[in-house]
Amino acid sequence: MIFGGISLEKLAIKGGYPIRGSKIYYGRQWIDESDIEAVADVLRSDFITCGPKVDEFESELSAYTAAKYAVAVSNGTAALHCACMAAGIGPGDEVITTSLTFAASANCVLYCGAKPIFADIDPDTYNIDPESIRAHITPKTKAVVAVDFTGQAVKHKEIRALCDEFHLIFIEDAAHAIATKYDGKPIGSLADMTCFSFHPVKTITGGEGGAVTTNSEEYYKKLMLVRTHGITHDEGEMESAPHEGPWYYEQIMLGYNYRLTDFQAALITSQMKKLDKFAARRKEITKAYNEAFAKIPEIILQKEIPESDTCRHLYIIRLDLDKLACTRREFFDALAAENIQCQIHYVPVYWFPYYQHLDYPKGLCPNAERIYQGIMSVPLYPRMSNIDTKDVIAAVTKVVAYYKNNK
Question: How much is the pTM?
Answer without folding.
Answer: 0.96
